[in-house]
Amino acid sequence: MAEQTKLVKDMLEMFGPDRVFSSDLDRYTYTYDSSFLSQINEYYPDVVVCPKGTEEVSKVMRYAYENEIPVTPRGAGTGQTGGSVAICGGIILDLSTWNEVVEIDTVNMQVVVRPGVVHNHLNNTLSSYGLFFPPDPGSSKMATIGGMVSNNASGLRAVKFGNTSQYVLGLEVVLPNGEVMKTGGLKSKALKSVSGLDLTRLYNGSEGTLGVITEIRIKVLPKPQARGILLALFPKLEDSAETVLEVFKNGLIPSGIEILDDGGIKAANKYKPELNLPEVEAALFFEVNGSKPAVEYEGLQIKEIAEKRACHVEWATDPDRMAKLWQGRAVIGAASARVKEGATRIFAGEDVCFPIAKVPYALRAIKDIGKQYNTQVVIYGHIGDGNMHTAPIIDPLKPEEVEACHKVADSIHRLALEVGGSTTGEHGVGITRTPYMEEEHGKALDIMRM
Ligand SMILES: Cc1cc2nc3c(=O)[nH]c(=O)nc-3n(C[C@H](O)[C@H](O)[C@H](O)COP(=O)(O)OP(=O)(O)OC[C@H]3O[C@@H](n4cnc5c(N)ncnc54)[C@H](O)[C@@H]3O)c2cc1C
Predict the structure, then answer these.
(1) Among the three residues 301, 318, 335, which one is the final residue of a domain in this structure?
(2) From the CA atom positions of the chain, what is the Rg in Å?
(3) Interval 9-38 mean pLDDT
(4) pLDDT tens per residue, range 205-244
(5) What range defines the domain where residue 406 resides?
(6) Separation of 153 CA from ligand 1 center, angstroms?
């Protein structure tokens, strides 16, 4: 307690009461992110500091280094693996309030932002310049760019445009001892560089373990002219995945390919009855973007392929119709719990990634795992990358359901490793994937620890 008081006093002296929080209630609001694990445990930080400048971050880091106090950087806390909670106590550096877009260089197609800028805000700002930042997490209205870089986030458009790391050109980082470094060249505006070791890439996905990201230079792209959406419904789950493989075999790369399984369809219908989706085993949503003729051509090619296995296919380019079709996918995060009265959707084992050739097998295997533990698992997500969201739906107040949920999540992680996939395609390791790191990485884990 005495130590905590000194820490809080020192932080208050450095930053004043408006940016230092230490009451029980304030600290409580930082004990969790979106992971289930952080909701069933309480990880209190000793103090929360909201810095607004590189020098301020540096001061905190130097202080913490000299006094051996753990520091956990935090963006919006939407991470699903407990990465932004202070599992060893100490200081939480809340960077969400440091949210300036520093520069928009339209000609060189790049922007410089501070870590707390929210993804959706950045894209709304870029839209008026005819530009966009392609990674597109479902948490777009909340997630910060600092958090996205640190988790190497991706999302609905990764199948064509890749993940965050493919757009990060350079970073300013405060190192654990308070020193400041710039990666990607001190004055660079280049869109490509192979000068020196790629430290920028090392920080992508480093989850706050290697320093605090205080500035980010990002490549942006011209906004595509046109877009189209195709909805395809499949009586048999595996046929949806086979259709995806056939689309790729035909040389087509949609900008998004998303799946909802039967539970997902049911949940979406309960949440928004006007959607009225037929209750089949799987629905696929393809998004195509690019020039107008290319979109039309690709859309019709995908339609032809989907019709071989689907019982219903609809292609739309009308904005209202597209918005309506896409709603089925858009609501699922919030809707999934509706498949079971009074239950909650759990974030555990929720973003494993399978090799795409194994997806037809993996989809059915996940269903079987759910049955084995008597737990409904809703499947949805980025099937084009093999990156599936698996949502166990349970009553978290019933210990036997929580126990079953842990077993389901563990089995899904192990299934991913067994078929040559990854335990996490986009959300990261945090505290939830540490048990699998040895098996997934072998010797490379020792190097990461160093
Ligand atoms: C509804 C919902 C949908 C989601 N959909 C997707 C999706 O489609 N794709 C996807 O990839 N993710 C998704 N996520 C997960 C999450 O939104 C992303 O991982 C996001 O990038 C986290 O950003 P954040 O600002 O909330 O970071 P936080 O959760 O606050 O932090 C995440 C990690 O980054 C570290 N960190 C944060 N800021 C910094 C910094 N400035 N310097 C160093 N380290 C830092 C933290 O220590 C932590 O380890 C979703 C989450 C929710 C709740």
Answers:
(1) 335
(2) 22
(3) 95
(4) 999 999 999 999 999 999 999 999 999 999 999 999 999 9
(5) 340-447
(6) 7
